[in-house]
Amino acid sequence: MYSVLIVDDELAIREGLATLLDWESLGYVVVDTAANAIEAKHKYELHSPDLMIIDIRMPGRDGLELIKELREDDPELHIIILSGYADFSYAKRAMSLGIDNYLLKPVDEDELHLYLTNLSAGLAARAAHRKKHAAVKIWSREMLVQSLLLDNGPQAPAALEGPAQESGLLWDSYQVVLIRLLLQDNADNGPSTAVKTRLAASFEEQEWGIVFSLDSYLGVLLQPSYQKELVRQLMVRNIREAVTAQGLECIITAGDMVDSLEEVPASKESALTRMKEHFFYDEPGMIGPDSLKLKTGLPVKPEEVEPGLAPVTERLYFAMDIGSINLLPSLIQEAGALMIAAGYSEMAVKSRYVRLVTHLMNKLSLQYRELELLHSRMDEQVEQIYKHTSLPKLQSHINGLLEQYAGGIKRDDIEVLIKRMLDLIHRHYPENLKLETLADVFTYSSAYLGRLFKNSTGLSFNSYLDNVRIGKAKELLDQGCKIHQAASEVGFSDVDYFREKFKKIEGLSPSDYRRKNSI
């Protein structure tokens, strides 16, 4: 539909023209009316009509003055003059302003009908021309930006300054934004083109910047705005809506703000750097100069990571075993902090987390038969780790997995603290059990927990653990196991220390015990 704005100081004429024809059947719609030149100018700016029908004689500025002002803004606007006088001087002045037709009141319906029919073809051609011109303009500006970013020679920005000025690209500042579409199976069967087309149209309309393609990315050269923060939020939302419409997700990074065309490639490079390191940012919107990269304190040598992860893994296991799931997030983050400090890559972090989660799930499933169903789906659950694009989201996913596993364990109704500790000791006596570790997962101080344990059992934690280990060692010796093997099996890495503990508890050495019991 082509839009029509009627301007006349007489209400009856305005209403009469609006109802004189079946405008819709001719392909037109009367969008509004105005009673004078000031109102008409305001409504022209509001509606941008294709055709205006204007009375010559109105209070204040007359129709010819209005037309002259409109022509300065829009030389192609179609205009019909209405007049109650067959005055040649008026008609001559009107024609000099490039009007389409001069109609006398009362308006001849057939004459107006014929004119509107003929005008449709002209309006269609004008619309096609505007569309083509806009497309060419967008394409030209994109090609200019691509040339600026791809040609790194020292003369490139200077050579492009002339075309940049012609295209309106000499701005006060520039910033490159890169968009990486997370395509299914890395196959792009058209969604990137659809996203780009939608963004190019909206960004040009909003004057936010120029959309372009660069290698495997979509990009935007941002135009400066006084409402920078608001534009940034609207732009990110616009991008995500365009991407979501194609059933995809994306990562958005922004380069540093620069002040000249020569520095635009540097803005691109900083955006690329952030794109490559996007995994280590906790930023749900657009990763930019103000985004904070996840960091730890002092650096860690790569060879120190595994020794550092071992106690963390141990505490994770015990926390899951006893159901202290509130400890899981901090322990998962502690593991991540170690890997970040050692400079692990995104894939290295994911692979190590996979090993950690698999180890915990396997160990728990051997201990609890009720976890068999969950364990059967382990591969599918663990595979999701590789699909996350940020470390915080990955850690949240892992926390959910471990919580699910811990929640699948059927625990006794008796939640007595000491009973749970004794159960852990009898099941895990060969391992590196420490009171401090259990105090951490039970959220008690080690001194307080130690007193509770001794008051209940009559023995300190370490004494009780030594008794359990020596008791298991006696069983192994009775079965013919060698002394050093028995020591290792029950958790003693030093055989001399084992002999000392054995003699202290049993009153005789392991060798004497074997001889006594073999008689």
TrEMBL record:
Its main location: cytoplasm. One of its GO terms (cellular component) is cytoplasm. SMART domains: HTH_ARAC, REC. It is found in: Cytoplasm. Keywords: Cytoplasm, DNA-binding, Phosphoprotein, Transcription, Transcription regulation, Two-component regulatory system. The keyword Transcription applies. Residues 419-516 form the HTH araC/xylS-type domain. InterPro entries: CheY-like_superfamily, Homeodomain-like_sf, HptR, HTH_AraC, HTH_AraC-typ_CS, Sig_transdc_resp-reg_receiver, Tscrpt_reg_AraC-type_HTH. The keyword Protein transport does not apply. GO terms for biological process: phosphorelay signal transduction system. The modification 4-aspartylphosphate is found at residue 55. It holds the Pfam family HTH_18. Residues 3-120 form the Response regulatory domain. Signal peptide: none annotated. Transmembrane segments: none annotated. One of its GO terms (molecular function) is DNA-binding transcription factor activity. This is Response regulator transcription factor. The lineage of its organism: Bacteria, Bacillati, Bacillota, Bacilli, Bacillales.
